[in-house]
Amino acid sequence: MELDFPMVQVLNEEGAIVQPAYREQITKELTMSMYRHLIRTRMVDRKCVSLQRQGRIGTYVPYEGQEACQVGSALALNDGDWMFPTYRDHGAMMTFGRSLTQTLLYWKGRTEGCVPPEGKKIVPPSVPIATQLPHAAGAACAEKWKGTKNAVIVYFGDGATSEGDFHEGLNFASVFHAPVVFFNQNNQYAISVPMTRQMKTKTIAQKALAYDIPGLRIDGNDVFAVYFKTTEALERARNGEGPTLIEAVTWRYGAHTTSDDPSRYRDQEESKKRRETTDPIKRVERFMQREGWWDEEWVNQVQGEVNAEIEQAVAEMERYPKANMSDMFDFVFAQPTWTIAEQKEAYLQWKRGMER
Amino acid sequence: MITKAGVKSLTIVQAVNDALRTMLKEREDVILLGEDIGKNGGVFRATEGLLEEFGEERVVDTPLSEAGFTGAAIGMALNGFRPVVEIQFLGFIYPAYEQIMTHAARMRARTRGHFTVPLVIRAPYGAGVRAPEIHSDSTEALFTHMPGIKVVCPASPYDAKGLLIAAIEDPDPVLFLEPMRSYRAFREDVPEGKYTVEIGKGKKRREGDDVTVIAWGAMVPVAMKAAEEAEKKGIYADVIDLRTLYPLDKDLIAESVQKTGRTVIVQEAHATGGLANDVLAVINDTSFFYQKAPVERVTGFDVPVPFFAYEDDYLPTPARVLHAIEKVMNF
């Protein structure tokens, strides 16, 4: 079935606004804020890849190319909203308030990286695929039943739409009009498997029809389209109009993880070409240049500030107290069971004996 | 690498690849399914080169759907195929658990043998490679507890190939656990072509009269190392590599523990409900009066497999095993 889900753009590749309705809202201040978040997330991502190469953090999941999806959608949230990310969404998590140090600690294999800042409802990334969608539906139901105006955003990739939990999450949310935005980052590859092999449908947005909820296909490399369309979907949610499925079409430039070699399954030229044409940051630069807002000095200053923030966070991560093995025993239950208490005690005793 | 005629020196992951290639050649009903197993050759390269050699109809890159492709493989097995599915990491098998527990494992029993499911499920398992969270589970006991499926776990390249071929030829479902940590840790001479290692038979990897150390998968090298250290202290250990986790090789266990009367069981997984307890039950049932000391278990803890910053403290080590050996010796 061929269905019409045209891709919504606000800012095109040349940096021109193609939806005049949003013209007024795209102020210099908003644009500069978006730009700052975009380059921050990109610089952090590149730093993490290099930290992994140097063995200073573990396996890392890069998102370069998907910054507009993560920044635009996270900036659309209110402080009281929930975020259910995947392992590739630390750009969104950082934009929403998770600290850079926590991000680095997570990739260093530390549970400290899963604890959100005080008051922020950022759930740890879901590592299996699509499992977080039913959680988001449930958290959204709870907000609704508590009578708040809080909403929920949940991230997932194109491959996740093949899992049962995708269907179950959307169906549950639609039945109960849950205030949740299902934010799909369609980067067109699930590790090595292209979207054409993942599903027969031409779009992910059209899957919304099956749940009788709005489905929207947007340019995921257009930070304004992401920001405005996510804001509108969140508004619908807050107003009791139920869930929305957003398909943000994007592209990951690099590997699935630092253990992956994408040259095995796709032509690297495609990513090179996309860096020049559809890059989410370049088009904002083009827009700022068109508007006469581009200020080399300001950009240098922002980059300097981000660099300083990164260096400080890396130093903090590396200065962090050594992982305390007690942690793995102490947080399993509110009160440790006798088995855990005994195992911990026996292990500590043995370890002390070894150190003597 | 060819070392002598008809023999290749392979790692475990290469031996798995060799077994799959051998069986794709040998039997037309063998079909491989899984995520990223085709063009990418599997995230660990276990299926490298097989798509090119056997084509898209026999090496199938599936949608990202563990329950979906495991369930589909059950349907294929019902209908004359011998599917071998790859679960990318054991920690991602749980969506397929219902398909395995409720359908694959009991189809034969429900239909008095009319329908059968000759399915092999391969999954790398275990910690120790600084993997991201959820990538390090060793929940073999969830499956040894499951009636109607055999569970196999090789520790060496030779056994990996021979057991995988045996699993594919087995008339019933088999979970084939591959120790991720040992995938490329060492090489061993592996015969070319088809051979099998019998499911249900363990192997003695080292001979000694003082103590029996029982391990499987990634814990076999840990047990071997501990046995070497014990020997320096004049303690000689039998090291048993179980190889098959269900059904256990009762005779091999009994023979060794009746000889030594002292036993240490090494298990990477969580303590409670783990396979070590079943090994202990075998010892109790067959050899209670031969025991000179209570059996020691060296296991992971009753905690979720921790993030990698903590995994060195979670995993059994040769030092911990040696400590247990000394404890049973000094009882």
From TrEMBL, chain A:
List each copy of the Dehydrogenase E1 component domain by range: 39-325
List required co-factors.
Answer: thiamine diphosphate
Gene Ontology molecular function terms on file: pyruvate dehydrogenase (acetyl-transferring) activity
Carries keyword Oxidoreductase?
yes
EC number in record? 1.2.4.1
Note down the stretches annotated as region Disordered.
Answer: 257-277
* InterPro entries the record matches: Alpha-ketoacid_DH_E1_comp, DH_E1, PdhA/BkdA, THDP-binding
Q: Could you list this entry's UniProt keywords, alphabetically sorted.
A: Oxidoreductase, Pyruvate, Thiamine pyrophosphate
Chain intervals with Basic and acidic residues compositional bias = 258-277
Q: Which reaction does it catalyse?
A: N(6)-[(R)-lipoyl]-L-lysyl-[protein] + pyruvate + H(+) = N(6)-[(R)-S(8)-acetyldihydrolipoyl]-L-lysyl-[protein] + CO2
Q: Has UniProt tagged this entry with the keyword Cell membrane?
A: no
- Reported function: The pyruvate dehydrogenase complex catalyzes the overall conversion of pyruvate to acetyl-CoA and CO(2). It contains multiple copies of three enzymatic components: pyruvate dehydrogenase (E1), dihydrolipoamide acetyltransferase (E2) and lipoamide dehydrogenase (E3).
Assembly and partners are described as: Heterodimer of an alpha and a beta chain.
NCBIfam families documented for this protein? PDH_E1_alph_x (TIGR03181)
- Recorded protein name is Pyruvate dehydrogenase E1 component subunit alpha
UniProtKB/TrEMBL annotation, chain B:
Enzymatic class: oxidoreductase
Transketolase-like pyrimidine-binding domain residues? 10-185
Keywords on record: Oxidoreductase, Pyruvate, Thiamine pyrophosphate
Keyword Nucleotidyltransferase attributed: no
**Keyword Oxidoreductase: yes or no?**
yes
Write down the required cofactor(s).
thiamine diphosphate
A GO MF label? pyruvate dehydrogenase (acetyl-transferring) activity
Instruction: Give the Enzyme Commission number.
Output: 1.2.4.1
Which PANTHER family did the record assign?
Answer: PYRUVATE DEHYDROGENASE E1 COMPONENT BETA SUBUNIT, PYRUVATE DEHYDROGENASE E1 COMPONENT SUBUNIT BETA
The protein's name is Pyruvate dehydrogenase E1 component subunit beta
